[in-house]
Design brief:
Radius of gyration: 22 Å
Strand content: under 5%
Number of domains: 2
Helix content: over 70%
Number of helices: 17
Distance between the termini: 95 Å
Largest sheet: none
Shape: globular
Order of helices and strands: HHHHHHHHHHHHHHHHH
């Protein structure tokens, strides 16, 4: 007798419906044409891998995004590494991470070579004259959006944010211990000892993070200094890649004196006009630090050491906790610690906007340069008016204006 019952569906396989080579090719493509910064890259991955191709489930994507936000490291790169780990373990995470970062690294390597070789030529100075002011506007809007998104209405987080911003403005530096202290304070307030178990997973993150700032350079060799500094930088980048800007500024410009203010802004600008993770600017910095007055291979070594040192912590902070994240990732103590660190990091970004903006607009002394003020305000206005306007388009437009304006302001 016929029945209306639906046929029994076979069990859903847990295996992937794509090959590792397909995922690696996708990561290579995204790293080559993925403009727009970390938020845009994260959105592209959801659109392409979850919605369109259905290689990654919604739950797997959300787990990866949460881990990327929780751990120090550039957001988009860590999410890509985690998605490679989901079905292909460490080998998948490794190959996807390399494929995602490699295209933008090669681009900044080429730009670094051109910058060192032709930096004295007027057209390059003119390009960066316009780009520098535009980049300040982009960072300012990013800091504004990050503040809206991460601080919310919490008075405690606002206090941490303002203290961190003020400390960055006054000292023109940023203190990693302030970040860690902010995390501990919020952790203690939101999950006090009398409301949590004696053992908390969040505590396991504090010892290694607290030790890193105390690392000293054992030798006076430049590559060793670069390796140690950028390893420390990579271990303290929470969330958006722009969070690394104040840390890099304090070390590269203030502590070591490897770059001056203009060169540092040029490095940030390079990150804005290239696809892939914003943090890849470390490759450009590494090249121009070691490539000045030397051959290509010296610059290549500096770029490679800086990039590897920055992304290695990001890679390790993804693959090591990945197997345990489902069990512990949503514990209140860890979430509270990250909230505190994030508030301090966003405050430092806001403070860095003022420091870098002041040094850019008043480059020639205490007299402001009117064309730079105009470019800064126009950039902010465009980003506020047109929400989906790609940042590289603005930067390239500022470069063209710089070529036009520079001969007149430097005549």
């Amino acid at each position: 007798m016929a029945t209306d019952q639906a046929p029994i569906q076979p069990a859903v396989s847990n295996g992937p419906n794509y090959s590792l080579s397909q995922l690696v090719r996708y990561a290579l493509q995204l790293g080559t044409i993925g403009f727009g910064g970390p938020v845009a890259l994260v959105g592209y991955m959801h659109r392409d891998l979850v919605e369109r191709r259905k290689w990654i489930s919604e739950a797997e994507y959300k787990e990866g995004l949460t881990l990327a936000q929780l751990m120090p490291g550039p957001l988009a790169a860590q999410l890509a590494i985690y998605l490679g780990y989901v079905h292909y373990s460490v080998i998948g995470a490794t190959l996807v991470g390399i494929a995602f970062v490699l295209p933008s690294f090669l681009m900044v390597l080429a730009l670094g070579w051109a910058y060192v070789e032709f930096g004295g030529i007027g057209w390059m100075q003119a390009v960066f004259y316009g780009v520098g002011a535009s980049v300040i506007g982009i960072i300012t809007i990013s800091a504004y959006k990050l503040t809206q998104k991460t601080i919310g209405k919490s008075l405690l987080l606002w206090a941490i944010y303002l203290i961190s911003a003020a400390a960055t403005i006054i000292t023109e530096n940023e203190n990693i211990l302030l970040f860690l202290g902010a995390g501990v304070i919020v952790w203690f307030v939101k999950t006090p000892p009398w409301r949590r178990a004696p053992t908390n997973v969040a505590a396991s993150f504090l010892p290694p993070l607290a030790v890193l700032p105390a690392v000293k350079v054992p030798l006076n060799e430049l590559l060793i200094q670069i390796g140690l500094f950028f390893t420390k930088a990579g271990a303290f980048v929470f969330g958006s890649g722009l969070a690394i800007v104040p840390f890099l500024y304090s070390g590269v410009v203030k502590e070591y004196g490897w770059l001056n203010d203009r060169e540092f802004l040029d490095a940030v600008a390079v990150a804005m006009i290239t696809p892939g993770p914003v943090v890849i600017t470390v490759g450009f910095i590494g090249y121009i630090v070691t490539g000045q007055g030397a051959d290509f291979w010296s610059g290549f070594a500096g770029a490679s050491v800086a990039a590897l040192a920055t992304f290695l912590p990001c890679y390790l902070f993804t693959i090591i906790p990945a197997p345990y994240f489902k069990k512990h990732g949503k514990r209140p103590g860890i979430v509270a610690f990250v909230d505190g660190v994030t508030a301090a990091a966003v405050g430092a970004i806001a403070g860095a906007c003022i420091v870098l903006g002041r040094r850019t607009i008043f480059e020639s002394g205490w007299t402001p340069e009117i064309p730079k003020i105009v470019l800064l305000l126009v950039t902010i206005g465009l980003l506020l008016r047109f929400k989906k306007l790609p940042e590289p388009v603005i930067v390239l437009g500022a470069a063209v204006l710089g070529l036009i304006i520079f001969p007149f302001v430097r005549a």
